[in-house]
Amino acid sequence: MTTPHLLRRSGAVALALALPLASVALPLRALAQTPPAPAAAPAPAAAPLPPETVVAKVNGAPVTAGDLAIAAEDPALSLPGVDEAQKKNLLIDYMVDLKVGAQAAEAAKVGDSPDFQRKLAYFKSKLLLDEYLEREAKKAVTPEAAKALYDQTVTAMKPEEEVHARHILVDNEEEAKKISARIKGGEDFSKIAAETSKDPGSKAEGGDLGWFTKERMVAPFAEAAFKLPVGQVSDPIKTQFGWHVIKVEEKRTKPVPTFAEMKDQVDQYLTRKSQQDLILKLREGAKIERTDAATPAAAPKAP
Question: I want to staple 58 with a disulfide (CB 3.0 to 4.6 A). Which of 16, 99, 165, 257 is the partner?
Answer without folding.
Answer: 99
